[in-house]
Amino acid sequence: MTYDKIDDSILDASFFEVFKYPRTYANLLYLFLLFPLSLFYFIWAVTVGSVSLGLIFTIVGFFLLYAFLWSLPRLMYGMGYLTKILVGVDMPVSYKPHVEGGFFTKAFNALKDRRIATALIYSLFIALPFGTFVFSLMISLLSTALALIASPFAALINWLIVGNPVWFSEAFWWAPQGVAIVLTIVAFIAGLVLLPATLHISNRLAILHAKVIRWSLTR
């Protein structure tokens, strides 16, 4: 089965036009969800995989390893379903094994399914580093942008409450009054620029990850 080319038209949105697209916020939510999901994938792969390999010479270890390998592609298809819903990328969302037969036939022949290998590689080496990176990046950029935008309002509220005749943000306490006012305004403008830039970055990262997931599911 072939799939349509990934719709990345949102990447062509103008700098401030990105705010009006619902897909922008869906992509941002998708990136935030990647961290807990990637952490689960990594813990699942390391914990269950190592335990099942350690007990492989016992009947419990054999069935545990079989269950572990059975779960890997299905977890990936779960990620594919989430990617399809939030990022809007067409991809397979139901796992159909390529092997038939009885239990033992499926158990041995399933090892030939490349989707098990790609799911294991993703869980161990891609999911957690990428999820941690994008989560940290988005938190840092969004918090910085919102803090810069709020800086003049915080300074004004501080002046109204405290009654300080000097209108400046505490971040610029070291600067003369005139310089502090200019720097506060500059910080506000910088925040207005950084916020849409962050959303453009999140759109690109979400689509990049969607391409990785679809590649893993269609191998």
Gist of the model:
The chain is mostly helical and 219 residues long.
Describe what you observe in this structure.
- There is one protein chain.
- It is built from five helices and no strands.
- With 219 residues, the chain is mainly α.
- It has one domain.
- It is elongated.
- It starts with 21 loop residues before the first helix and ends with a helix.
- About 2% of the residues have low confidence.
The number of helical elements comes to 5
Would you tell me the overall average pLDDT? 82
Q: What fraction of residues sit in β-strands?
A: under 5%
Task: Report how far apart the termini are.
Answer: 11 Å
Largest sheet, strands/sense/barrel: none
Give the SSE map.
Blueprint: H1 22-54, H2 59-87, H3 103-109, H4 114-162, H5 177-217
Helix pairs in contact: 1-2, 1-4, 1-5, 2-4, 2-5, 4-5
Question: Features of this protein?
Answer:
219 residues, mainly alpha, 5 helices
